[in-house]
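Section 3.1 - Work completed
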Amino acid sequence: MRITMVGTGYVGLVSGVCFSDFGHEVTCVDSNAARVEALQRGEVPLYEPGLEDLLASNTAAERLHFTGDLATAVAGAEAVFIAVGTPTRRGDGHADLTYVFAAAEEIARALTGYTVIVTKSTVPVGTNRQIRDIIAGTRPDLAPDGFDIVSNPEFLREGAAIDDFMRPDRVVVGVETDRAAEVMQAIYRPLYLRDFPIMTTDLESAEMIKYAANAFLATKITFINEIAALCERTGADVKQVSRGMGLDNRIGNKFLHAGPGYGGSCFPKDTRALARIGQEHGMPMQLTETVIKVNEEIKRRMTDRVFDLCGGSVNGRTIAVLGVTFKPNTDDMREAPSLTIVPALVGNGARVRVVDPQGYREGRDLLPGVDWIKDPYEAAAGADALVLLTEWNEFRALDLTRIAENMQTPAMADLRNIYSPAQAREAGFTSYISVGREGLPD
């Protein structure tokens, strides 16, 4: 099939590349000329394991193309996907649909025959019907059955997006007509053939599924983080607690890892948007609103714990921070806990050294006043404290003895519970804090 993907951000680029790997002819469109030129050269503007190789192979096979000419890309396409950003709107927390609606209007002007318009962007309930109205209003000459609207939300985890697309837990397709459903079945035919769950539903349900899923996962993370805080007061070990909870099949063990709070491109934005949708419909999402509030409190509490590790003041102290992206295997810094913790350290007089395998490209502008170091041992040498913020594999098997011996003060804030208090003590750390566990054993 001939597919056009409007937007080459994270969702659009991953989706477009993967659809081309399914055997479809895909043209990805972006208004950023520099980005298009880079993609045409095979340069990927974001870090996602496996994406660069997949892009290169499908470009070489002439199934994948990049352009800034939307009209040409849309003309004759059987399906056009909208995959532009929906950032949080300033002031009210609602999803900003400016780019979605602009794309819909531009697509409408370029339509030459029956086309399925598929929304991949995360949008509030009712948005796809608004897109239908925009297209019909822009092109009143189109027959009533000249196009169809489909909601096809994405469920891609950064760092594992290729696998998520190729082997999904489920594909959700919101449609209004059998004709649109048949087109979507043809697009996802490789997944149908391998019996991956593909759920066909109405537009509103598809839109809501995305928000409900992300809000639930954010709630799960926030719940275990609150339990972790209580464990610290009671002497319980949150790792044991989360394991005991996760063994219950009704709960499961995923997203039950205590840490410094959730971040990234989805959970913060989507929980705020869901809360706003509830307010607009007179049905406040009280649980989601609390999750948002508690998550911000958790980030601030982690900052306070680092200050406590340094005796209450970080002024004049050298602190090594390992990991600043919101999770490993991505370069995404959006709403990362580091954006709360690191500026607080710098603002209170600390000299901060940062190590992150992929965080420099975005982090250099977001974290002014820090020194970027490539090697964790170099960063820790002579430091007064070591802070583990992101659980990159490179940080999971450090020589803690070597680090402790070369620090000015062997103190560690392990905010991802990578190591154990016993390991820290045996390595020579005199101070160690983690999340939801007691400190150094006697």
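Second construct:
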Amino acid sequence: MLKGLIGKKIGMTQIFDESGVAYPVTLIEAGPCYVTQIRRPETEGYSAVQLGFSETHPKRLTGGELGHLKKADANMPPLRILREFRTKSPDVSVGDVVKADVFSLGERVDVIGTSKGKGFAGGVKRYHFAGGPKTHGQSDRHRAPGSNGSGTTPGRVYKGSRRPGHMGSDRVTVQSLKIVLVDSERNLIGVHGAVPGPKGGLIIINEARKQ
């Protein structure tokens, strides 16, 4: 069964339970998503469902994108975002509409988003380095990362070392968030906790891998 949606982060709020305990909740505009393609093992080599989200003006899409959608279904609206969801048994057909009610209260989901970009950052902010000593004559080394080489051999800094650089704008997955709100009429899903990215950011909701 297909358990996946594309959405947009709306923001955070709080929900109170029967005993008056407040829970932080992130609201996501989840769907409606259109089934634009079904990939099968005998043709593509794997099983997946391609969903489309966010209707837009046809002039904002290329001819190839419009042709792909019209080939799937002549009545398919122009959709800006396409994503694939792996599933062993696709129980949907091309042209079907998937809404927020594919998930139910209490289910656990994995939420994927793009983290906020922080620009160029130093080692202390980016990787929580301790920095240099604050005394004994140190005047300008407080937040310096220090030496990162390894002597004569290999006499260079390895690729992938933790150094200053671009921070954020990474694909981030938050696992096993609990669904506490489902409103299929308004295409809303509320999950307990925070999800990556700014307001209005693209969100992918999957069934939790770690149940």
